[in-house]
Structures are given as C-alpha cells and as structure tokens.
C-alpha cells in the first residue's frame, strides 16, 4: 500500500518536477500536519532544519504543489493564505476569534452545484464551504 507521500512524489515525477530536499520537507510537513499552515508557519517549522531556505522558496514550492493538485490554497478575510494537503472532499470550521481551522466531513453538496448550474448556466468546477464560530478552546478561555 502506497502512502500519500509516495503518491504525491509519483504525481510530481509524472509532471517532471525534481524532488529537492526543501521540496521534500515542505511536502512532508503539509502531509503530516492537521493544521492549515500559512507560508510563515511552514517557514518557522522548517527554518531550523533548512536555515538557508527562504520564504520565497516556500512560496515557489507551494505554487508547484498547487499546479500539481497536491494542495489547496485557502484564502479567508485575514488576507493570509493557508494551505491544505488533504484533497478529499471535506469542509472547514473556522474560529472567528483565533482563526483555527478544523476539517469536517459532510456528504458533498453536489445538489448545490447542480442547482447553481441550472440557475446560472455556469459549468461548475468545484465548491467550498466554511462554517464560522468559536472553537472550544476560545469558548473555554472566555469562561475563565
């Protein structure tokens, strides 16, 4: 059984992308984390192991991963992009106080896509859904 990492490496090889140590580290980090890190968070997590790696290197590699379909870029109102390597159908719950993002599964809203197509004539390519609220940590902090 191949791991998600091995599948990702194979996908990159098929598109002609060479696997550098930095690219390997960024991809491993994204696949191993349950968080939805920003570029700065990825940089901080890897700077001890790769002190010469720049933020620009991370941006450039994320662009490669986006083009290969290995990650999604999540943009929200705070202006900071976050990156998600979980490519299965899922949705996000976002804390309006601390910005934490948790994944949750729900049956794909394919009927919403069909309705959008029927009412607008658009050829729907994808959708995303977020729900907003206050995470349990922030709720607990508010009580104390």
TrEMBL record:
Belongs to the Fur family. Keywords: DNA-binding, Repressor, Transcription, Transcription regulation, Zinc. This is Fur family transcriptional regulator. The keyword Amino-acid biosynthesis does not apply. InterPro entries: FUR, Fur_C, WH-like_DNA-bd_sf, WH_DNA-bd_sf. The lineage of its organism: Bacteria, Bacillati, Bacillota, Bacilli, Bacillales. It comes from Marinicrinis sediminis. PANTHER family: PEROXIDE-RESPONSIVE REPRESSOR PERR (PTHR33202:SF8), ZINC UPTAKE REGULATION PROTEIN (PTHR33202). It holds the Pfam family FUR.
């Amino acid at each position: 059984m191949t791991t998600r990492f091995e599948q990702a490496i194979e996908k990159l090889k098929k598109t002609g992308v060479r696997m550098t140590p930095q690219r390997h580290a960024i991809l491993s980090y994204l696949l191993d984390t349950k968080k939805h890190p920003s570029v700065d968070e990825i940089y901080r997590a890897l700077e001890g192991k790769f002190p010469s790696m720049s933020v620009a290197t991370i941006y450039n590699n994320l662009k490669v991963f986006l083009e290969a379909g290995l990650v999604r870029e999540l943009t929200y109102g705070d202006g900071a992009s976050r990156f998600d390597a979980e490519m299965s159908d899922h949705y996000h719950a976002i804390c309006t106080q601390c910005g934490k993002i948790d994944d949750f599964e729900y049956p794909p809203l394919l009927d919403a896509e069909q309705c959008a197509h029927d009412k607008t004539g658009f050829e729907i390519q994808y959708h995303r859904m977020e729900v907003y609220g206050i995470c349990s940590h922030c709720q607990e902090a508010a009580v104390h």
